From TrEMBL:
It comes from Kitasatospora kifunensis (Streptomyces kifunensis). Belongs to the binding-protein-dependent transport system permease family. CysTW subfamily. The chain crosses the membrane at residues 46-73, 98-125, 146-167, 187-208, 229-257, 290-312. This is Putative spermidine/putrescine transport system permease protein. Residues 103-309 form the ABC transmembrane type-1 domain. It is found in: Cell membrane. It is a multi-pass membrane protein.
């Protein structure tokens, strides 16, 4: 008499992790959506970390910007018909006469100083990035960080004491014989470069450090000269960062106020000086909100600057990251 063979149990299903499936363990087809949902919940909560910054930005910039925009399009309290009435006269006045001249003066000064700061700052930053002495490199970068934020009345006093009409350097070198005057457009540009060039150094140095050594070696192996390497390899890669640095310098120069006010006052037409005069009441009756219209003009220019700066930074980071 023969007996029937004992049935052999089928092997357990193997999951995607290579282990045997066990009762109570979710299959891979169910684990993946679970992980996806967890990732989505984590991503949805990630913005909470930026909430304090968003609140600070809304209070420190958003509310004042809204108040400026509302005031720029309404009449002031000293207007003949009363305040709070919608009008375009503030913006119209801000773009005519002396105010428009001041706006052009600020744009001209900012464009010139930003260009010089970019051209001078690039080779200095390259010297810092390629320095073999770490202490020198760190000292230059630290000093640049300090000088980039050095401005206002102390900076004006320093230049008056050295390059003013009775300054030490002016009298020692007899600069007045050559037509030098600190209280002119050119003199103000020199003062602005004192903090713009360090700002360019600390801005462009990370981009210079991102240039691959292999790129220079590959160019040298193919017979390229140093000029050809910079012309066809380095500068095209650095161009977004250079333009971004130029835009940043333009914005810093455009918004500067205290240094110019302490040095030249209203003798050099600048939009920031005009805003200061308007806020102090140096306007015609009924133009109390003209300063807000001038401020709105500056916000528009700064917004256009940042609209150019941010895409350039993203494009540069794609190559240098």
């Amino acid at each position: 008499m023969t007996t029937a063979p004992t049935p052999v149990p089928a092997p357990a299903a193997v999951d995607n992790n290579g282990g045997a499936g066990t009762p109570g363990t979710a299959p891979a087809s169910q684990a993946a959506p679970t992980a996806t949902r967890r990732g989505r919940r984590s991503g949805n909560r990630a913005w909470l970390g930026a909430l304090p910054l968003m609140v600070f930005f809304a209070i420190g910039f958003g509310l004042p910007a809204i108040a400026i925009a509302i005031g720029a399009f309404t009449t002031s309290s000293d207007a003949p018909g009363g305040g709070g009435t919608f009008t375009l006269s503030n913006l119209t006045s801000s773009l005519h006469g002396a105010y428009f001249t001041a706006l052009l003066g600020s744009v001209k000064l900012s464009a010139l100083t930003a260009l010089i700061g970019t051209v001078v700052g690039l080779p200095l930053a390259q010297a810092v990035a390629t320095s073999r002495f770490r202490m020198v490199r760190e000292a230059v970068l630290s000093g640049s960080g300090v000088l980039a934020n050095f401005g206002g009345v102390p900076l004006a006093f320093m230049f008056v004491a050295t390059l003013g009409n009775a300054g030490e350097v002016t009298t020692s070198l007899g600069l007045k014989k050559y037509g030098w005057s600190l209280y002119t457009f050119d003199g103000l540009a020199v003062v602005y470069l004192y903090f713009l060039i360090p700002l360019m150094i600390i801005t462009i140095t990370p981009a210079l450090e991102g240039l691959r050594v292999q790129w220079r070696e590959a160019a040298a192996n193919n017979g390229a000269t140093n000029f050809q390497y910079w012309r066809y390899v380095a500068l095209p890669v650095l161009l977004p960062s250079l333009l971004g640095g130029y835009v940043l310098l333009f914005g810093a120069s455009f918004a500067a106020y205290a240094t110019a006010e302490a040095m030249v006052g209203s003798s050099i037409p600048l939009i920031s000086m005009q805003i200061g005069d308007a806020l102090s009441g140096n306007v015609l009756v009924g133009q109390g909100n003209l300063a807000l219209a001038l401020g709105l003009d500056m916000i528009v220019v700064a917004g256009l600057v940042m609209a150019v700066y941010l895409p350039l930074q993203r494009r540069s980071a794609k190559w240098l990251s």
